[in-house]
# Entry
Amino acid sequence: MTDEPMIDLSSDDYFMGEALRQAMKAWEAGEVPVGAVIVHKGRIIARAFNQVELLKDATAHAEMLALTAAEEAIGNWRLTGCTLYATKEPCPMCAGAVVHCRLDRVVFGAPDPKGGAAGGAMNLLQHEGLNHHCTITAGVGEQQCAAVLREFFADKRAKKAAKRN
# Structure
């Protein structure tokens, strides 16, 4: 018997790790490193990373691209029974789309107190005036997700400063 812990392939930590892999793809592409995966019945049905600059599309957030891919995978715009894992708290645009697609649950890593719409600046995912509400699990892999964002922006600032000198 080994002392290695069992890897729970259905855990929030595992799926957030997969979202973090997507975030790193965004970083490699020069995008803000946010990644997302959507899970249905314990299986990843969609993976995406921010592609705003690549696609020259302000709506090409990781969550939005993952929603489109999940809709295609399921063959329906209603994503009931699905969970979104995102490395950063969804913005109002993404949270609105999540509500419209009727996801059951949203799990995110890094909070966004200034622009987050899952309890940061506001909570659209559980807004009483909307016809659907999502369960929210915040802070899964928070330290790693936040560190990726911090390091990305610190690197960008350093490169900008080096250009000026």
Q: What stands out?
A: The radius of gyration is 16 Å. The beta strands are 35-40, 43-49, 82-88, 105-110, 135-138.
